[in-house]
Specification:
The chain is of the alpha/beta class. The protein has 3 domains: about 70 residues, Orthogonal Bundle (Arc Repressor Mutant, subunit A); about 110 residues, Periplasmic binding protein-like II (D-Maltodextrin-Binding Protein, domain 2, 3-Layer(aba) Sandwich); about 100 residues, 3-Layer(aba) Sandwich (D-Maltodextrin-Binding Protein, domain 2), CATH 3.40.190.10. It has 10 helices and 11 strands. The strands form 3 sheets. Strands 3, 4, 5, 6, 9, 10 and 11 form a 7-stranded mixed β-sheet that branches. Strands 1-2 form a two-stranded antiparallel sheet. The relative contact order is 0.14. It comes from Scopulibacillus darangshiensis. InterPro entries: LysR_HTH_N (IPR000847), LysR_subst-bd (IPR005119), WH-like_DNA-bd_sf (IPR036388), WH_DNA-bd_sf (IPR036390).
Length: about 290
């Protein structure tokens, strides 16, 4: 059993389908099936069960795929340690990024970083901030870019702070929001809590949600068609010249804001690519904020 088998097993775990796994591994389906049979003979145990819902690991197979996952992680960490001992900044940098930051902030940052450090390969995983935080806790990524209040005791740096805005196709007033149709989109629990707490502090009447969509972009398109208003992060409204936007304020006249953080483990700073990216973020943010 070697590193190719580790990748084979983890790919099967993710895809639960031999055909899709073979496509990802760039091998034929018969070759993959043959290797599966070899592994089962090697371990003298059935590792997989196939049924209509797909390919599933037996309890014995689960133990072996966990071993494969741990070996892949150990191999990656060993490579990173070796690469960090060299002068040139290179290696694979694994980023976990909240979906909104990935859409509106990350592309230009990555382009600028790779221009400066062409020897670095970047892997990006996106999701809700709560999911990205779990990736960091589990050691699946080097750096997390998360939004909202995050209790992280290791390396942490404030990337940005933005206002929350009520956006509408037509002019509105904040005072009249309880009487207007609001378009809600599925978002991270921390942002939902932030908006809900502001609403409870500001109004006595419940929110009037007439539409609920699965993502921010769909919500924004609904607003642009005049189907209701939405409460959105300022970042996603910078280029929307046809919408009326209104900052939210608490009763003490402080604006409702949401922070974006860059976090990593202290030990990750020993890797040259991680340290370079962390420092790059600070310099990049300083330049763009001028």
């Amino acid at each position: 059993m070697n590193d190719k088998d580790w990748v084979l097993l983890t790919t099967l775990k993710e895809e639960k389908n031999i055909t899709r796994a073979a496509e990802r591994l760039f091998i034929s389906q018969p070759a993959l099936t043959y290797r599966i049979h070899q592994l089962e003979r090697f371990f003298q145990s059935q590792l997989f069960i196939r049924n209509r819902s797909g390919l599933h690991f037996t309890p014995q197979g689960e133990i072996i795929v966990e071993y494969a996952q741990s070996m892949i992680k150990q191999l990656e960490e060993t490579k990173e340690k070796i690469q960090s001992m060299e002068v040139a900044v290179k290696g694979t940098l694994k980023l976990g990024v909240s979906s909104i930051a990935a859409r509106y902030m990350l592309p230009e940052m990555i382009r600028s970083f790779l221009n400066q450090y062409p020897g670095v390969d970047i892997n990006v995983i996106t999701g809700f901030s709560s999911e990205v935080e779990q990736f960091l806790v589990d050691g699946d990524i080097h750096i997390a870019i998360m939004r909202g209040d995050r209790h992280w005791d290791e390396r942490k740096w404030l990337l940005s702070e933005e206002s929350l805005l009520a956006a509408s196709k037509e002019p509105i007033t904040i005072e009249n929001l309880p009487n207007l149709a609001r378009i809600y989109y599925k978002t991270d629990s921390s942002l939902k809590a932030l908006v809900d707490n502001w609403w409870k502090e500001t109004f006595q009447k419940p929110v009037k949600i007439t539409m609920a969509v699965d993502n921010l972009e769909t919500c924004k398109e609904m607003v642009k068609k005049g189907l209701g208003y939405a409460i959105l992060p300022g970042t996603c409204l910078n280029d929307e010249k046809d919408l009326y936007t209104y900052p939210l304020y608490y009763s003490d006249d402080h604006p409702v804001k949401r922070k974006t953080w860059v976090c990593c483990r202290n030990s990750s700073m020993n890797f040259a690519a991680v340290a370079a990216f962390f420092d790059f973020f600070k310099a990049y943010n300083h330049q763009t904020s001028k």
